[in-house]
Amino acid sequence: MQDLEQYRPNVAAIILSAKYPEICEFFIAKRSDIKNARNVWQFPQGGIDDGETPVCALYRELKEEIGTDDVEVISEYPDWLIYDFPKGVISKKMYPFKGQKQKYFLVKLRETSNINLNTPIPEFVKYKFVNYDRIFYNIVYFKRPIYKKVLEYFKKEGYI
Q1: In contact, 141 and 87? CB cutoff 8 Å
Q2: How many structural domains compose the chain?
Q3: Strand-pair partners of 99
Q4: CB-neighbour burial class of residue 32 (10 A; exposed 0-12, middle 13-18, buried 19+)
Q5: What residues make up the domain containing 146?
Q6: What CATH number does the domain containing 108 carry?
Q7: Which of 61, 80, 114, 115 is most buried, most CB within 10 Å of its CB?
């Protein structure tokens, strides 16, 4: 059994464009802190502060990372998912954690949403919307297994 205290509580947002459900496009963003790497794209995510609920953390992180929390929550993955940081990825920011335990949400941007990556502490340098088949081509390798599990769940449930 894993010691869950060693895992940083975290939320992640799988964001669908405002065109959903007619068109199913996924928001991915390129990290600002990893230079000279092609596949450093991911879904927005971030830590849960002490006393904060996962839903509150979701809205706060979206505002901090992509400049908008103008989304509609469509669904929530039923379980917490755990992964270890790969060697060389653990930073001072993540110490003393050896990985993250994440709660995933499927959200849709509203028509009134205005994405702005020029936030006070930019996490991303650019973003794009991709179809389902292009997600895994772009995503950083160590996040692929969890992304696959979560996306397959939302697909099985009929959301995507």
Answers
A1: no
A2: 1
A3: 7, 84
A4: middle
A5: 4-156
A6: 3.90.79.10
A7: 61
